[in-house]
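Weekly puzzle thread! Below is a chain. First person to post its structure in token form gets bragging rights.
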Amino acid sequence: MKRRACLLVLTPLAFASVPQGAHEGAYVARVGGTVIAREHYRFANDTLNAQVDLITQSMRLETRTAYDENRSPRSFHLAARGAGDAVLQELEATFADSARWSMMTSGGNRQGSATPLTPPFGVLQNLQFSHLAVVLQRYDRSRGGPQTLNLWLPQGAQSLPMTMQLAGDSGSVEVAGVTMRVTLDQTGWLRHASVPAQGLTVEWQALLEPVAKPTPGGTADTLPSPEAVESPYAARSEDLTLAGTLTVPRGAAGPVPVALLVAGSGPTDRNGNSALGLKPNSYAQLAWRLAERGIASFRYDKRGLPASRGSINLAETTFDDFIDDVVAATRELAADRRFSRVVILGHSEGAGLALLAANRGAPVVGIGMLAGLGRPFGVVLREQLAAQFDSATMVRWDSGFARYLRGEDPGELPDALQVLVVPINRRFTQTAVRYDPVKEVHGAKVPVLIVQGETDLQITVGDAQALAAAQPAARLVLIPGANHLFKRAASRERGSQAAQYLDPTLPLVPELVEAVVSWVALLK
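Winning reply:
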């Protein structure tokens, strides 16, 4: 399910006139020189077939999109495959005045809904660049100037406005405030694209060539260390089964402490990786480092992810549902005689879930807030928007967002803001904005550890200090040169950090592990 993501990877947008007959080729996308996606496509008879290999995720996306004579999408099919060619997710959509979609995951989860669409519209699968070439055939060169088209995104099942402007063989495209530069060939087909702010480059080529494996950026392995023994483990939360991985120290004598690792926002899985194309493997690495120091851990796939089983309704899903899942998992661990005591380590949005779960009676002796927000979600969202829009627009936003939270029509808002008030996310947003981290941490009933990286681009040192000020008994650890993932990053420049979200071999900063281990040792 779609929430905030720690890195936005946009696909390139540019097209002037599609060549006659079949068009076939490939695209290779890189971030910081590392190949993150390779696509082979064929566009013929108004149907686009593509296979996209997400290199850093070991996942393949197979898509088929049918268009009408105006290059407006009629239907879309997606199959996401993982290791062993297993289908992880399958999605079907048809288009008219709305995108009507249904999705099934390997765990048996079924979801479906409809997203209203305003013409002209297209479909955009993240990291599928041939899609965008077809979509942007809609650009009217005789009219010129900036032109807007609404895109339906299978990831998140929502629409988003896209503004494009082409002249000659080059142009620019803007989606969600991110600008991409594009270059076209003589037929008008996309040849090159780049997003300097993200370090992303895309090149067209006739055939896919073998790609070298990424050079390891550090000493951390992508497999458990010899001291860590892993096995499948699951927790029941009402009618859901939260599948995950239990990691225990090898040869442990007697009960050991166990940490529940709670993931951040968006489709972030048990290992800290995401279907959005991110693969830092940070939660798996943390589990292995803890096992080396005598601490067991359980990391799980959140509700809605393929491995966790049970039916959910996105439109009715709330922030409280995720809190209940954390409480249920801690109870499972507390009842397991292999463990002496339970702590929760929550990262980013997961830090808030950890805090709320503890305050609602989760059987834990402490919580660790790793890169946790120190301000209410609504406050942070408004601050981010105020830096991008004028005061008149913000007045409209304030009243529109208030109506949205009350269950009413938010009214007329700029296209770039409409994506924040889609109906399917209303219940989650209504419950998420009620959470005040400072108030909750002030009333914390168990010891609190607050860890914050000083080069984090999403959460600030000020957030950590606000939490610590509200709970003087908390232990505050600030780590110089650590980013949001607790990987080493000397600079706060966004482009320089992009590759760290994609390389699973980069190790965690040792200061994080040391802070957690020394804190757990004090808990009883």
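Puzzle host: Confirmed. Bonus trivia for everyone else. Residues 1-20, 211-217 have pLDDT under 50 and may be disordered.
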